[in-house]
User: Fold these one by one.
Assistant:
Number 1:
Amino acid sequence: MTLLHPQRTAVTVSRRGRAPRRGSGGATGYLFVAGYALLLLAFGVFPTGYAFYLSVTNSQGRFTGLNQFIKVAHDYRFVPAFTNILIYLVMWLVVLVVLTVLVAVVLRGRMRPGLSALFRFLFYIPGALAGVASVLVWLFMLAPDVSPAARLLNWLGMHSFVAVIAPGNLPVIFMLIAFWTGAGGWIVVMYGALNNIPDEVIEAAKMDGAGPWRLAWHVQIPMIRQWIVYMTILAFAAGTQLFVEPQLLQTASLQRVSPTWSPNQLAYVFAFQQGDFNGAAAISVFLLALGLIGAGLLVARSNLFSLDDR
Amino acid sequence: MRSPIATVDARHRTSRASAAVALAAAAALLAGCSSASSTPQAAASAAASGSAAGSASFASVAQKAGSQITVWADSTRLPAVQAYQKANPTVKMNIVTYDGSADGSTYLQTKVQLFDRTGSGWPDVVFGSPTDVTWASQPTKSGATAFAAPLDENLVPQQTLDNFAKGSLAPCQDNGHTYCMRNDIAQVVLWYNKTLLDQWGYKVPTTWADYEALGLQVAKDHPGYLVGAVGDTNSQESYFWSSQCPAFHLTQPNTLQVNLGAADCTRMATLLDKLISAKAVSTQGFFSQGFAKASGSKVVMAYGPSWYGQYLFKSAFNTPAGQIAAAPPLTWPGETTASTGNVGGGVWMVSSHSANLKASTDLVTWLTTSDANQASAPTYPAYAPAATAWLANPTNRSYFATDVSPAFQQAANDVWTGWSNTKFSDATAWSSVVLPALTAGKTLTSALPAWQTAITNEAKANGYTVVNQ
């Protein structure tokens, strides 16, 4: 445990060191921010603004109010796509929060540092694969005739690839892919967050007779709550934009997956098959609203941004 | 640490979405505006009026003799294009391989939508599916020119067009013009393993009742052997098209009849359900992963397109030469002549934006009609004189146990015309609704209503008026 002291001190120092600089400002700061700000304006803010514009106009550029939103909401693919994404999101967020925190607590408190570092590395590796590559890996994982998990799939009564990707299984499959690629990184983040808890606090709790689970539930998890909220917001935002996984699975399975499984896919079909860019923009605005509402609720409920005031 | 990476990841996704929107934005800015409303119905009617008005006004862009032409072909047709290049080295060609719109892919449509918005980038010649012609023959928005050039307007002599097999250019035609040349037809015939049938003493079926009885017999006497499979993206074209089921029947240019409750549909569903439950017909696809290895050698019969011989039995199943034969399409009670289906059959289109229409048209004409190319083509030519040459080619005959010419020629004229070429692929609903239901153990008959709903929804989204009776 003495090993961790320098790290903690470093954090404190850096925090103290940052405070005065914040006040003094200067051109250098703006220079550093400029590159990001420009790209954000060009590829983040402008397209978002343009999507808003498209979503309230028709293809002749006339203002149509909310008609585009009403039109896409009445499309027969709208409700299924959003239902799919909501089921997926609930499963993915619950599994992500429960398992990453659990694993981080175990890695932090119940394991030798060397072994813990090895595991963190192993968990992280899949996250280093690009999105498409990781889906390709899963195409093999899901085909019983080539999968290393073929026994498990057969035991579950799924003897062919097409049986594995039955519509009812899809949210679980996408959740597994997302967890496999994304959770490792978050485990490392949660581990870092747990490291920030002062040792005195942990020792005091232990002295008061807290066992490992009690310690985790009443001390560690409440103290990293804001990290968990941060993770949930980012995972929620990324999750609503699910596209590559269903799209690739649709191609690989020769269309056994609906081409409009997720809202992003539906927007893609609207834009590039029906030539309806305004409708596509309306769907993306729906997604933006969904992400903002989710983030807003979490931020309000958790006092996420009150960290600096403490 | 993950947090920056996570942010990058999230940003990556966001940027992907934003990039798409940005593209859309930029494209829309460049292209200006289109019809009054962006609903497909309006777009379709605008397109219709556009092509009606534009039918006489196909104005080619400024022609540059000898300029390079860009050709998009699928990997199967690539050697043919390369052969043309070799024979005509003076023609400047840029050959690009893409998926050729196989299995309902919409890659070409997606790209043309974008090119129409950016105003450049169109390929000069493309190989595509008949479905592609439905959108390519109409402007994607008012003010745009339809992607496909009307070939009957001073590009290809009428005499050449008249030589295509009966009805094979129907998918190319719209508003009285011909927008494509059919590369091949894929008339459905009854494929069978002659060696096995002879060995077991079975007679080749000529009616659907015979087929059903033989299937049940095979299931009983030789468990594990198969007389068909319904799990491919195109199985509905082999079976339901042959059954004359009104699933995609355009009664008027914009009115689609989708009536899967019709007796012509249920008779096929019932027949297949019996064979599926007897395990004589597989719910997997012939082309699905692992099928060739597990069951390829156990396929006694297959009701499918003319390319099954080379592509399924020879290439995928590795069935030795001299075993496989083809019989003419099966008949239903009361029928004197059979009706059959058609599974694919590509088309070649010339872009109306081409700056070298002459070279483009020459290439397309050579590809579809010349004996030099078609006699050794991988699939059955739609151009009748070339088909004769194709059937005479020893490489197209030597693999089979008996001469396939009578079956092929009869089937080519028996393709039922009531299964229309629609603006959306007939594979999507079948693959994403019916096949998962079969995999889950439901019967075809019970999946028909869901299939009908899926087709109806898709048709309405594409601007059709749907009739369910």
Number 2:
Amino acid sequence: MLKPTIGLEVHVQLKTRSKMFCSCPVEFNAEPNTLVCPVCLGLPGSLPVLNRQAVEYTIAVALALHCEIQPFSQFHRKNYFYPDLPKGYQISQYDLPFSRNGYLTIETEEGEKRIGIQRVHMEEDTAKMIHGESISRTSGYSLIDFNRSGVPLLEIVSLPDISSPQEATLYLMELRAILRTLGVSTANMEEGALRCDVNISLERGTRTEIKNLNSFHSVRKALEYEIKRQEEVLKEKGQVIQETRHYDERAGVTLPMRTKEEAEDYRYFPEPDLVPLKVDPSWIEEVRSRMPELPEDKRKRYKELGLFPQEAATIANNPELANFFDSCLSLGAPGKEVANWLLSEVMKYLNARNLSIIEVPLSPEGLVEFLTVLKEGTISSKIGKMVIEEMLQTGEGAREIIAKRGLAQISDLVLIKKWAEEVIKENPDQVSQYRQGKEQLLGFFVGKVMKLSGGKANPEILNQILKELLSRE
Amino acid sequence: MQATLEWAQKLEGKLRSFLALDPEGALAKAFMLEEKLKKGEEVGPLGGIPVAVKDNICTRRMTTTCGSRILENFLPPYDATVIEKLERAGAIIIGKTNCDEFAMGSSTENSAFFKTRNPWDLERVPGGSSGGSASSVAAYQAYLALGSDTGGSVRQPASFCGIFGMKPTYGRVSRYGLVAFASSLDQIGTFARNVPDLALLTEVISGHDPRDSTSLPEPVPSYSKDLDSPVGNLRIGVPRDLLQEGLTPEVKEAFEEALKIFEGAGFAIEEVSLPHASYGIPTYYLIAPAEASANLARYDGIRFGLRAKGEENLVSLYKKTRGEGFGAEVKRRIMLGTFALSLGYRDAFYVKAQKVRTLISQDFQEAFRKVDLIALPTSPTLPFKLGEKVQDPLSMYMSDLYTIPISLAGLPAISIPIALKNGLPVGMQIVGPALSESLIFKASYLFERESGLSNLKPPIVEELSA
Amino acid sequence: MKITLEIVKHIAHLARLEFSEEELKQFYQQMVELLDHFARISELDTENVPPTCGILPLYNVMREDNPGATLPREEALKNAPEEESGFFKIPTILEAED
């Protein structure tokens, strides 16, 4: 198989309170055209004024992505015509972007890998268009809502260091985790706060660009399809056409985009309505001093506690989960065990209900108590699963639940021995099979005793007793 | 106010300075101000003064067409910052004046609606692009007026109409609400019949505006006070090298006479060199159209303004709308500008022009080390006849030869009347370093008193008032 | 620098302007003449001259992130050539590539 070379271009909506160049509020799901003003409508005579918070968020992202923040940067006009672009140009950045030459690290199966980041720059978002069919069916129409016009965007362009669809997904997940940890964006792809275009070529041949990717899943699927497609083309004819394609979700294929423009000439020139940015180093330092711990540093810390790389990544990349985890650690709980339970039973519960950990009544204190109870041997892991589910539902403490439902483990040697002897007596065939060498039948006996005990027999003690009894003649 | 409005209407028949007049609004405001006066309340420094505003400055109460069909019925949902300032100062905006379409022109002949006439000779142009504003003040239709100056569009009409016109330092006056032509050159400018009035109007509209990122933070001195405080023996520079090109004998004569007045007042006249200023025309006509091509891209028929009917394909909707809505000069400049920025030509045209612009600015900086102010004629010619230059774009562009270099350098300049030759006004520019408006006003006021050339009355005004 | 009619047509397309054949020819003549004249600036040596990127010595002009007043919807739509249910409406078929 030919090695793919993949680059990602991501646009991120920033979570500022007002727009990039005007003070219209940034809100979602508002009535159409109610969050607009002369500036973001591109009315004659209007002028842009830069949002300071957007610059600060950009500094934070640039630092998190290890970029060099340029001492002098400028905005440019990117000129083209489209109904969602009210001024007929987008205020963006061209050859003097805010920051460049950074990287982020992803956790692959082969270990850590650095993906280079070419640039992070600021620009403004366009309006939203809806297309419709008119009753007469002879012509369509489009409706435009300018609420989104002017929302601050970051453009983050990676180097073509990504080598597989899987890595592309990991890159996006890492980027999302960073953005959420910084609190600068919801980075939610389904809501449009994070948008992604990909570039892909095989063995450094000609590149195609794929647009219209709406989820991490589509990114992976589109890339997988495109790799196969390009391989076939190369096998047959030989030349992959350099073009822009879009991904059709339903069919699961990429298709050439219907004649949009010829290679656009954007006629970039410096934006005369804005003055250049000379970011004060002390501002950068001030932002740096307030930076929260980033996912990659969390991962490192978690791995040192004994978590496997994938476990560390899953927790570190989810800011809420990571906060919960860290709280448990600060209460003295052992990381590995906290992780085990978070990533199994807790995640299962949350995913099934599409909830986040902050939306359930389980607290770090609760989880830590639970682990203590387990360690004491009061209940088995199996019972523990039931308990934790109830804790997630009701927020009650582990001990409370155990007491209420009488779930405490039975460790009474005499009682367990009695049950064990009973089961052995009732199953002579299995006993002789076991004694002849079928040692896996131990599980059968364990199961029978568990049934008798209502699941409460202490498994270690039971195992020991059974082995002892079965090994006798 | 009633009398003013009647007089204005009377002259409109001959001049057509206005695209829109608002007699009701004007009378209502006059009434309101009178009530305030009766109660002994403040009415503001411009209380009750009738002001005309160029139609490329946004006003909520009146259409803002920029002299173009593409904005024929456009009613802005907001007022420009300068309009808000005028209103707060008690001024009464009586109407919107005619101009070259989107401020592109030097004669007001490029207005899509009609031509405005020069009050001194109805067969001649009032200058442009702020021709309507200049003629309205010269003909006593309004007391004061606002215009805009990108390459000379306030100074040249002031000169052609025998009045005073000032273009402040770039960034001195907010551009918020001024319909953009060339963003790095545009400034709103002022017209009046004498220096004290001009200084007051300029003072009222100047100042930092948080809605304009290019607006200067420096506080506005009180231009209107201290006009006659002594300025000492100023050194006035004359850029003879620039004046080699184009200067007609009448203007030359008037200019030399004017310099004598300055000498008489104790000023020293020296020669300065602006070696790159003669490249001003190509520099300007590459940069300004480039910026204009982007600034006018928003006229697309989508959210406001003209929309061509019957087009279902997006590209043809754009082309037809803009094809129908824009006049020839506007199209010409958009083409020039798009060309100057396009792939393959950008470095040789746009970038090169921006470099030459730096050279021109440096020339002025050098010159102001030797002199305090620079004086030169505003226009190389007397006001020309309607139709004389419209067919030849290049010759029309050349009439801005003396005003353009100053715009490129962002410097403040005034045009003051210096003579009447063959019954036609001649104007002279006084240019200063950045933010030297106070000094420019003082020097102009001195000239005004020495020459007596202010509050002039064109023959038509004499005739019709009889 | 050879400027052809083809180039002029391309520029007209980039600028979304429409001309009749007559007008186009006239523009072509004028463009050639004007650009010829403007090319004079190539005479000047600008080797170490920076392009003017702003007249003013101003930097870092920014505003605080405080949401402010918006236009009431009727005002925003009042000059719209066509509107529907609070949206700006355009009667064209567009590619579905949002």
